[in-house]
What does this fold into?
Amino acid sequence: MHIHTIEGYIQNIYLVEYPDKLMLLDGCCRADVDTVFNYITEQLNRPLTDLKLIVVTHMHPDHAGGAHALRKLSGAKIATSNAPGQWYKGLDGILMHLTDIALAWWVAGRLNKERRNLWYSRYLDADYYLATDSTLPDFDDWQALHTPGHTDRDISLYHIPTERIYIADLLVKVKGQLMPPFPVFYPKLYLNSLLMLKALKPQRIMFAHSNEMHIDDIDFEHILALVPKKPMTHWRSVKAKARQALNLKRFSQS
It folds into this structure.
């Protein structure tokens, strides 16, 4: 087993290679579809049909955006959490889907990337829905661990033999420091997910948006102190900024 780390549009792409099959640890951006296709066919000199499984850890644009297109090209299956329903359901889901695509474009701008088409379906049509602690279909050396908090359906992927884990957006690095992501919809679930990761004690941790790290290099006590007590969401952020602007206006008029 070998894990290739590929530079994606705004995130790391982890492609797991075996002699007879390939697996993507996340569904990438829509803008990454050609990147994955070219890497498999040109760098690895393998047919795209060797891609057998695409895992979607959660529904954000840089984790689910390329999944359907890559399945159509390769014939791979899609696996995801068995959380009930669709993340982007209803009117709120439509607005949140649009907001998350806009946030992905904002991140791309910060990385000096040109704007690319990131549109993807807000509904995921998966082939497998994974219970916590279940092994991945046809990749039974990998285990799906439910790590919600960022959303209600985040999963992390643990390679049992090497004690190496991909945690997607469970932690992000800002100005060189690991911290909780934005948003955190479910703070209590998020705290439990961090405590589970700490107790698991994997040897190495792979992140969606920073370099792989050894477990001993992560200050869990500092990170746990940063866990929000209340949800940090798009709408709460907008409301807080609106209140701040209103207070400044009142202050200037007084």
